[in-house]
Write a structure and sequence with these properties.
Elements: H1 16-36, E1 47-48, E2 59-63, E3 69-71, E4 74-76, H2 81-92, E5 96-101, H3 107-120, E6 123-126, E7 129-130
Parallel strand pairs: 1-7, 2-5, 5-6
Antiparallel strand pairs: 2-3, 3-4
């Protein structure tokens, strides 16, 4: 008499759970990557008719109307601004940084940051917002 087994291993594999996990990861990374480029320093940028952003992950120098400087959202004194920018650009092996100055910032504060770029032969970009 031949006895048959009732429990046979099911060789099928369901991809539904894996698809859900991958979709959730995709949504998470899309949301976090769009929020990662935004600066926490609240400055009101001047407006322009055209915007062209072609510098990937630049070092950002933010200048508030009262003349306070920030490098990548960290407060920096005027005396240490040059040293901080040079060391950050050396760490990123980049030769460019972005100046995010409030529209009410004094011209001398912006020129001070631009002189750093001139002295070290860095490329600069001035951040604006589109009308």
């Amino acid at each position: 008499m031949k006895i048959q087994r009732r429990n046979k291993a099911n060789p099928e594999f369901s991809l539904a759970a894996m698809t859900d996990v991958i979709l959730l990861m995709l949504i998470f990374f899309m949301i976090t990557s769009s929020a990662a480029n935004q600066s926490a320093i609240d400055v009101k940028l001047p407006t322009t008719a055209s915007i062209e952003d072609n510098i990937p992950n630049p070092v950002t120098v933010s200048i508030k109307p009262d003349g306070t400087y920030f490098v990548d959202d960290k407060p920096v004194t005027r005396e240490l601004l040059e040293q901080t920018v040079v060391s950050d650009l050396a760490a990123k092996s980049s030769t460019s940084f972005t100046i995010r100055a409030d529209e009410n910032t004094m011209h001398k504060d912006v020129v001070f940051a631009m002189e750093i770029a001139e002295k070290h032969k860095f490329n600069i970009a001035i951040a604006t917002v589109k009308d």
